[in-house]
Specification:
165 residues; alpha+beta; Immunoglobulin-like; 2 domains; eight-stranded mixed beta sheet; 1 helix
Length: 165
């Protein structure tokens, strides 16, 4: 009787050690998974803050018909921008802007915008100013205009301006 009790206790002890090891391994896995998710979220937030565009000046080219917008913007973030199709440009009468999407061959009246970097290499480097030309599909005529540049997962910039005198 004493021997079977000892065997039973040993079996229960081994089973409890195995069970405790399994629970502890699951807890460590869950902790590491949570830490990985937190680090990934922090990395995405940091990347989002590293993309920033500031509008320096905006005007209207009235020498052609239909008129179009010319916007000078600087990459004030901490990362170069290479994919211009992820940038949204909203321009138009104050309170009634129109979305313009990027097109490398945007032309007058196309309803899209083109972006040319200062050095022309197609990479919007940190601190570099780019020229954005937004071509509306309709004629523009308002007392005050608004432009907003919104990079994908970045900090947007807004600017109000009157038409040229």
């Amino acid at each position: 009787m004493g021997f079977s009790t000892t065997i039973t206790e040993i079996i229960l002890l081994i089973a409890s050690v195995v069970l405790a090891s399994g629970v502890s391994a699951q807890a460590i896995y869950a902790g590491m998974s949570l830490q990985s998710n937190i680090l990934q979220t922090m990395d995405c937030a940091k990347r989002d803050l590293n993309i920033r565009i500031s509008i320096g000046y905006a005007t209207i080219n009235e020498t052609v018909t239909p008129k179009y917008f010319i916007i000078y913007a600087k990459n004030t973030g901490l990362m170069p921008i290479t994919d211009f199709s992820t940038i949204d440009v909203y321009v138009g009468e104050y309170g009634r802007v129109i979305l313009f999407t990027y097109s490398s061959n945007a032309t007058i009246g196309s309803g899209s915008f083109s972006l040319t970097t200062a050095d022309g290499d197609g990479i919007w480097e940190i601190g570099e100013t780019a020229i954005i030309k937004a071509y509306p599909s309709t004629d523009i005529n308002a007392p005050i205009y608004e432009v907003k540049i919104v990079p994908f997962r970045g900090i947007p910039s807004s600017y109000l301006f009157p038409p040229p005198p």
